[in-house]
Specification:
It contains 14 helices and 13 strands. The strands form 2 sheets. A 7-stranded mixed sheet has the order 2-1-3-4-5-12-13. The protein has a 6-stranded parallel sheet with strand order 8-7-6-9-10-11. Bound molecules: NADPH dihydro-nicotinamide-adenine-dinucleotide phosphate.
Length: 388
């Protein structure tokens, strides 16, 4: 029988919801490109309910306990002697979400003698030390595509919000003001601007598709080029590297995984090569940018705005400098955890567990590490210790 340790974010401050703003969710059974949404044998939750917090339990308790397995759910993950550290010692499976990551460091992996499977209930397994997972023969899986469109929508929202100076204007209303000039002195139209994405995978391409109707000029860089017909359809300009692309852009959006090739990519040098007044949106991972360099670029005016929802570490401390830097539109890490996304990644997590417990293959598209090496999506999109 397996012990499953699930690390989730805390319930709402006012308690687990007893009702919701809407009564149903649209049914999404496949994603752009044809991949099917998760297909577990069953689910024990109501789509649209809060599943990603401790009391939501990703809807897994009945499923696991009825089969004799143990489920431990906690949000206590970082402090010395945390529940996570204590329970990890004999856990077979760890599940966590990028929004509230249970950092599986080499030391923790070495201490987790029974650990065989690390599941990301979402996308992005950089909180797991993949080299250590490979060395210890641990399978790492995530629910590929489950929240890619959720994030793409967030990127579009943040792009418009920064360019049009939405948040300060909303603040004016909350403060009882009507200061039109103050609001519009930093407000522009997106129309005609050059927008570039670093990576055009599931999220990056979805962002390009969603922004195309705004009559912008679209750029991208990626390790692999998109098909000619997609480039032609969206009028895309391909650049061989981020260094080559960013000087052309008014807006840059980062949609690559965090791995050795992308860590620290946006430092003083790359930010300094951008047009003065560029907007930078990062919903990928905080460590792809240099935290201090972003703050300095906002203070100097090199960046006109920075927005995103990814921080390091998470949760961000109350005095994190990004909370108070100028012209930012940060949110906590929420873009991929809408109630809509939660229903998909809870179902995907259950699908992965069903496969693992029954000894049937986990979908290739969900695999990051398996059998002592990168596998599936991991082999395509990640790099480890110089391997890719
Ligand atoms: P995909 O795997 O579909 O796309 C990632 C893309 O990044 C691939 O096209 C890959 O290239 C490309 N890439 C990898 N390395 C580089 C590089 N060095 N330079 C340029 N491009 C590179 O993933 P998604 O689009 O679904 O997600 C992307 C990332 O977004 C995730 O890894 C995660 O970190 C983050 N994310 C954030 C969420 C949030 O809530 N904020 C939620 C979901 C994801 P190729 O495959 O061509 O080699």
């Amino acid at each position: 029988m397996a012990k499953v340790l699930c690390v989730l974010y805390d319930d709402p401050k006012d308690g687990y919801p007893s009702s919701y703003a809407r009564d149903d969710l649209p049914v999404i059974d496949h994603y752009p490109g044809g991949q099917t949404a998760p297909t577990p044998q069953g689910t024990d939750f109501t789509p649209g309910h809060l599943l990603g917090s401790v009391s939501g339990e990703l809807g897994l308790r009945t499923f696991l306990e009825s089969r004799g397995h143990t489920l431990v759910v906690t949000s206590d993950k970082d402090a010395a002697g945390s529940v996570f550290d204590r329970e990890l010692a004999d856990a077979d499976v760890v599940i966590s979400q990028p929004f509230w990551p249970a950092y599986l460091t080499p030391e923790r992996i070495a201490a987790a003698r029974n650990l065989k499977l690390a599941v990301t209930a979402g996308i992005g397994s950089d909180h797991v030390d993949l080299d250590a997972a490979i060395t210890h023969g641990i399978t790492v899986a995530e629910v590929t595509y489950c929240n890619s469109i959720s994030v793409a929508e967030h990127v579009v929202m943040m792009t418009l919000s920064l360019v049009r100076n939405y948040l300060p204007s909303h603040r004016t209303v909350l403060d009882g003001g009507w200061d039109i000039a103050d609001c519009v002195a930093r407000s522009y139209d997106l129309e005609g601007m050059h927008v570039g994405t670093v990576a055009a995978g599931r999220i990056g391409l979805a962002v390009l598709r969603r922004l195309a109707p705004f009559d912008v000029k679209l750029h991208y860089t990626d390790r692999h080029r998109l098909p000619d017909e997609v480039e032609a359809e969206l009028g895309l300009t391909f650049h061989a590297s981020a260094e080559e692309m960013v000087p052309y852009c008014d807006v840059v959006t980062i949609n690559a995984p965090l791995h050795p090739e992308t860590e620290g990519l946006f430092g003083d040098k790359l930010l300094g090569s951008m047009k003065r007044g560029t907007y930078l949106i990062n919903t990928a991972r905080a460590k792809i940018v240099d935290q201090d360099a972003v703050q300095s670029a906002l203070e100097s005016g090199q960046l006109a705005g920075y927005a995103g929802d990814v921080w390091y570490p998470q949760p961000a401390p109350a005095d994190h400098p990004w909370r108070t830097m100028p012209h930012h539109g940060m949110t906590p890490h929420i873009s991929g955890s809408s109630l809509s996304a939660q229903a998909r990644y809870a179902a995907g997590t259950r699908e992965i567990l069903e496969c693992w417990l029954e000894g049937t293959p986990i979908r290739d598209e969900y695999l990051i590490v398996q059998g002592g090496g990168l596998a599936g999506t991991g082999a395509h999109s990640y790099a480890v210790g110089g391997r890719s």
